[in-house]
Amino acid sequence: MPYADASYDIVTCAYGVRNFADMDEGLREMERVLKPGGQLMILEFSYPTNPLIRWGYDLYFTHILPAVGNMLSKDKGAYSYLNRSVKHFPYGEDFLKHLRDAGFADAQAQPLTFGITTIYTANKTAHRS
After folding, report:
1. Percentage of the chain with pLDDT > 70?
2. Are residues 81 and 22 in the same domain?
3. Which is more confident, 31 or 70?
4. Rounded to an integer, what distance in angstroms lies between the CA atom of residue 48 and that of residue 39?
5. Are 38 and 52 in the same domain?
6. What is the separation of C-alpha 121 from the centre of its chain, rounded to a whole number of angstroms?
7. Do residues 54 and 83 share a domain?
8. Residues 52 and 40 in one domain
9. What is the rounded CA–CA span in Å between residue 91 and residue 29?
10. How many domains would you assign to the chain?
11. How far apart are CA 128 and CA 59, in angstroms?
12. Residue 128: per-residue pLDDT
């Protein structure tokens, strides 16, 4: 990112991290531009763990959304990408590990909407040892 080190008090990203060309590099850049004590907040899709919610989610994202998307945009692949990208995103504890590996502390995940989306928060440590 074209910003100086320790430029921001907070960095946010909504539904974008799973689209980064290199997720870990992107997270390290977020950590780099944060001031010591700054906060990271990421809102990202996740994959529901409840079997009934997961079944409905899969039905919607695998069949209904691509069909409607194709009718509206005439592009069959445009709306099937969403489901594939969400399924491959390291949600929950797996994503928290990526945050910690990028240098963040106090990484937490708060699932919302039956686990279909999650808010991740983390902090940049005030001092590195």
Report:
1. 96
2. no
3. 31
4. 26
5. no
6. 11
7. yes
8. no
9. 20
10. 2
11. 46
12. 53
